[in-house]
Amino acid sequence: xxxxxxxxxxxxxxxxxxxxxxxxxxxxxxxxxxxxxxxxxxxxxxxxxxxxxxxxxxxxxxxxxxxxxxxxxxxxxxxxxxxxxxxxxxxxxxxxxxxx
Length: 100
Prior knowledge:
This protein is an alpha+beta fold. The chain has three helices and four strands.
């Protein structure tokens, strides 16, 4: 069953660190089947706290998403994300069933 990683950037604290993250994070996609579903496009908050940006990545399954997240390349990039902004990051299993 597909899985989704959802990034919610709440507040940028260091733009230079976030730029470092943006430069390093693409290398972590190598060898992983990732689809960008949404990537920091226009955002309207309908309910709840505001957010600066949202990204949603689709993976084949939960194990594939964790393998990407735990990869040395992503962990190296992640250090800069954590220094550069306050984020919430979620991993959620998708619903691949077709509605009738």
